[in-house]
């Protein structure tokens, strides 16, 4: 089994294609990069650069108040749920790892990837709205890729309980989110051990108890995220922006470094331009999740007067995750002297940079914010799992509870022991989700594009 997982992981995320560049450099593409980047470019062109052209609309629809059913979510609430999973450990250590491997220029390519990914996020979220259905268990609505795949491929005169592609997507999602649960607790336990010398067992027990109290209650997950996500994102932005402002004199040189290394001759001559580009691209893809089919599981739950509004809100989520939060982490590191960060990597590098800016408080702050980011991710993925569990096992409280208990067990085990295969399992799950989702996105994109055209027409007429 381990061999199978590792083989699939290498196929999805390993170097599948190598493109030689002048000066002895090269760019290595994985299968997922080869799929997602062209998809982002294609949808960016089809939506006529939606992420730039309709940015004001993205903000406006996100801030609209919800009318109607109390059990349904607003576009803003579904954005909060998806942001909870996008904004995680990757926004901290992942950004630092990308810069460590690819240099400051990786930040530029991370931005480019986010702009492309936002249009993919719009397409899949709008489809989730178009094909959503009522949720008899939790109230409100549910949906996502498993549901819009099913309705698209099912023949009108032959109703079926399951469709193969939908089943594969739903299973991949459940596998992925179980793996992520273990990664989350392992990261939190390590951070608290380093910052506070708390044994992993104690921090893991507290994490599991808090998780159980929230996820085992009917509708406590969204309420908890409504409080947590704005607070954690607000705190992180407040501290990081304050550091950036205090070092404002260095900002022009940081931007110069980012752009010069993104296209610089020095990297090309040294054979490292491929690492610069691909580390930025991979970081952006891993962080914003656009195309993986995760966020549409939340987007389907929104109540709105037009499906394109939810798509625009989810496109904004990609911007918040990568352009804003990931960039703040990048600037924290790039504003610290190289003699401070040295050859450090991962959490040690980030804590060293934060320690330089804010002393011992910075080290503690990173540990606490990592806990908040990671815990909110756990709550978010359990919300995603609802619709997939329902698709596979029907409207059963027993099935919903069984998956939650399984995720809590993985959360506990992960805090005590790091199994590399489970990290790979999470990556395999999200990779397979992406492939199955993209198979449906291309033929179904016309529906989302028609919704966008209708939205813009009604917007011009002042009808919405």
From TrEMBL:
Subcellular location as annotated: Cell membrane
Pfam families: Na_Ala_symp
Swiss-Prot/TrEMBL keywords: Cell membrane, Membrane, Symport, Transmembrane, Transmembrane helix, Transport
Coiled coil: none
TM regions (residue ranges): 25-45, 92-112, 162-184, 196-216, 228-248, 315-336, 356-384, 405-422, 428-450
Recorded superkingdom: Bacteria
Membrane topology: Multi-pass membrane protein
Alphabetized PROSITE patterns for the sequence: NA_ALANINE_SYMP
Family (UniProt): Belongs to the alanine or glycine:cation symporter (AGCS) (TC 2.A.25) family.
NCBIfam families: agcS
Name of protein: Amino acid carrier protein
Provenance organism: Enterocloster alcoholdehydrogenati
Classification of source organism: Bacteria, Bacillati, Bacillota, Clostridia, Lachnospirales
């Amino acid at each position: 089994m381990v061999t199978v997982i590792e083989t699939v992981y290498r196929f999805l995320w390993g170097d599948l294609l190598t493109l030689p560049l002048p000066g002895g450099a090269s760019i290595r593409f994985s299968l997922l990069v080869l799929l997602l980047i062209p998809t982002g470019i294609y949808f960016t062109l089809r939506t006529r650069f939606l992420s730039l052209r309709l940015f004001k609309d993205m903000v406006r629809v996100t801030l609209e108040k919800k009318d109607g059913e109390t059990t349904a979510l607003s576009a803003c609430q579904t954005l909060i749920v998806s942001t909870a999973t996008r904004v995680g450990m990757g926004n901290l250590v992942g950004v630092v790892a990308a810069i460590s491997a690819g240099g400051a220029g990786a930040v530029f390519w991370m931005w480019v990837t986010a702009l492309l990914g936002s249009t993919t996020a719009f397409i899949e979220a709008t489809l989730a709205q178009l094909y959503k259905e009522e949720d008899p268990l939790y109230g409100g609505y549910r949906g996502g890729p498993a549901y819009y795949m099913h309705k698209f491929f099912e023949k009108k005169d032959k109703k079926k309980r399951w469709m193969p592609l939908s089943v594969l997507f739903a299973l991949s999602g459940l596998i992925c989110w179980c793996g992520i649960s273990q990664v989350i607790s392992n990261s939190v336990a390590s951070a608290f051990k380093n910052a506070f010398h708390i044994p992993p067992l104690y921090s893991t027990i507290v994490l599991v108890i808090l998780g159980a109290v929230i996820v085992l209650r009917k509708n406590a997950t969204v309420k908890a995220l409504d409080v947590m996500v704005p607070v954690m994102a607000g705190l992180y932005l407040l501290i990081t922006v304050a550091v950036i402002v205090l070092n404002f004199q260095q900002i022009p040189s940081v931007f110069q470094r980012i752009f010069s290394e993104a296209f610089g001759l020095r990297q090309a001559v040294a054979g490292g331009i491929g690492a610069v580009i691909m580390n930025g691209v991979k970081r952006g893809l891993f962080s914003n999740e656009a195309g993986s089919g995760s966020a549409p599981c939340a987007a389907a739950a929104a109540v709105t007067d037009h499906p394109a509004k939810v798509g625009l809100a989810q496109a904004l989520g990609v911007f918040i995750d990568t352009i804003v939060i990931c960039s703040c982490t990048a600037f924290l590191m790039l504003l610290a002297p190289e003699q401070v960060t040295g050859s450090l990597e991962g959490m040690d590098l980030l804590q060293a940079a934060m320690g330089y800016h804010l002393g011992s408080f910075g080290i503690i702050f990173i540990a606490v914010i990592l806990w908040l980011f990671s815990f909110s991710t756990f709550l978010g993925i359990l919300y995603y799992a609802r619709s997939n569990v329902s698709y596979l096992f029907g409207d059963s409280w027993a099935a919903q509870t069984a998956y939650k208990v399984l995720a809590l067990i993985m959360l506990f085990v992960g805090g005590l022991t790091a199994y590399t295969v489970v990290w790979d399992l999470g990556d395999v799950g999200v990779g397979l989700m992406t492939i199955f989702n993209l198979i449906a996105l291309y033929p179904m994109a016309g529906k989302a594009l028609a919704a966008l055209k209708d939205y813009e027409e009604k917007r011009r007429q002042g009808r919405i």
